[in-house]
Amino acid sequence: MHMKLIGPFKQIIPMTNLSLKGAIMDNQLEIIQDGGVLIEGNKIQAIDKFANMLAHEKSNATEVQQLSGDHICLPGFIDAHTHICFGGSRANDYAMRNSGKTYLEISKAGGGIWDTVTQTRKATRPELIKGIVKRAKRHLTNGVTTIEVKSGYGLSLEEELKMLYAIQEANTLIALDLIPTCLAAHMFPKDYKGSPAEYLEEIASKLFPRLIKEKLALRVDAFIEEGAFTPELIEPYFNKASELGFDITVHADQFSTGGSKVAVQHNAISADHLEASTDTEIALLAQSNVIAMALPGASIGLGCDFTPARKILDAGGALAIASDHNPGSAPMGYLLTQAAILGTFQKLSNAEVLAGITFRAAAALKLKDRGQLNEGFLADLNIFHTNDYKEVLYNQGNFKPCMVWKNGELVYNKHKH
Ligand code: NIG
Ligand code: FE
């Protein structure tokens, strides 16, 4: 198979041999100096000193991509929580919020998620695909090579399917990987003829089997909150999802607590948001296998507290960090900027922030083939023009990768754009 050798890198930060849970200090980060990455097909074959590899590979038919100047290499970033499939804009909500109205007030007045539902239902599938592709490509130029994408602005069988088909098709049109999640339980659709329990029952009995059959999503999410769904309503819904083999994830403790407990009880892979979590919820999560996912983009978008990331890590929890990119609470959609800012407010080490957007985010999506630079892992490389990896977070996302590789191919080159 075709082999490629890339290097030399002043530093390769492979994010290997670090624990999934708990605090990490920067001096625990492995750093390979003057290294090279050998790629075979879409995978990493080896990482070693570039000079040694070059001498060895000269005899083979390996294609060498020799870099001049100082570069460092990180794993491609993983944005494990987004809503980038949507129609319209919520600039009005943003203006209203900043004029003093709360998220819940705006939602009750017909704005909020329901507004995006209306606009998403009006959009055609090709229009939705175009929006996803545009947003995903922008994430790619910021070093993101895997993006989780939720439905949840359709809120009926047909409209949720439209979104999930759009995500599935968009995935074939771009280099990065989209991981779909069904969020039909985002809120109770106001136009549904029946009760919230009946709505969830219909989704579980009619939509879930189709998701499996057509490989549209293997993950199920629910928003547990006042104005969305209560733990009691979600109980049978998650039970059904688990029985069918779906992985569970939860929008939990965003404004009020309750969701994280549901996440733990249902053995969810992740509990996301957690801005309202208190020491009780933090302890509960830290003692479980649920990954806590901070969404600093929602805190920045709503002007509210950050997830208590420091406390979660110190309690021994696993912390992933995602953008929550959506038209309402998190319109910015710059993962690296948001993760860096969370780091400054929550006093997270470089290692903890980077872990949150690499191997810990991979774990939150149950993806064992990425998030680290190691033999056998996907060759998803994030290359920055610097001699020190610490420059990346220091510049708070304003410093972009100069090259991004996905599945062993160079898919973004800043100098060619
Ligand atoms: O993750 N919290 C609920 N859902 C989204 C917001 C969606 C929206 O406002 O459109 C979130 O923040
Ligand atoms: Fe969200």
> Cα-atom Rg, whole angstroms?
21 Å
Which architecture of the largest domain does the CATH hierarchy give at level 2? Answer: Alpha-Beta Barrel
What do we call the CATH homologous superfamily of the largest domain? Metal-dependent hydrolases
Number of domains: 2
Q: Structural class of the secondary elements?
A: alpha/beta
Please count the helical segments.
16
CATH topology of the largest domain: the name is: TIM Barrel
Distance between the termini: 30 Å
Proportion of residues in helical segments: 25-40%
The overall average pLDDT, rounded, is: 97
Counting DSSP E segments of at least 2 residues, the number of strands comes to: 16
CATH structural class of the largest domain: Alpha Beta
Distinct small-molecule ligands in the complex: N-(iminomethyl)-L-glutamic acid, fe (iii) ion
What percentage of the residues does DSSP assign to strands (E)? 15-25%
What's the shape?
A: globular
- pLDDT under 50 segments (min length 5)? none
The gist of it:
The chain is α/β, with parallel strands linked by helices.
Provide structural commentary.
The protein is α/β, with parallel strands linked by helices. It folds into 2 domains: 3-75 and 372-416, Urease, subunit C, domain 1 (Roll); 78-364, TIM Barrel (Alpha-Beta Barrel). Helix content is 37%, strand content 21%. It is built from 16 helices and 16 strands. It has helices spanning 50-57, 91-98, 103-108, 112-122, 125-140, 157-173, 196-213, 231-243, 259-265, 279-286, 296-302, 309-314, 335-346, 350-356, 359-364, 390-394; strands at residues 3-12, 32-40, 43-49, 63-66, 72-75, 77-79, 144-150, 177-185, 219-223, 247-252, 270-273, 291-294, 319-321, 381-384, 403-406, 409-413. The strands form 2 sheets. Strands 1, 2, 3, 4, 5, 14, 15 and 16 form an 8-stranded mixed sheet that branches. It has an 8-stranded parallel sheet with strand order 6-7-8-9-10-11-12-13. Strand 10 (247-252), helix 9 (259-265) and strand 11 form a beta-alpha-beta unit. The longest helix has 18 residues, at 196-213. The model has no long low-confidence stretch (mean pLDDT 97). Fe (iii) ion binds next to loops.
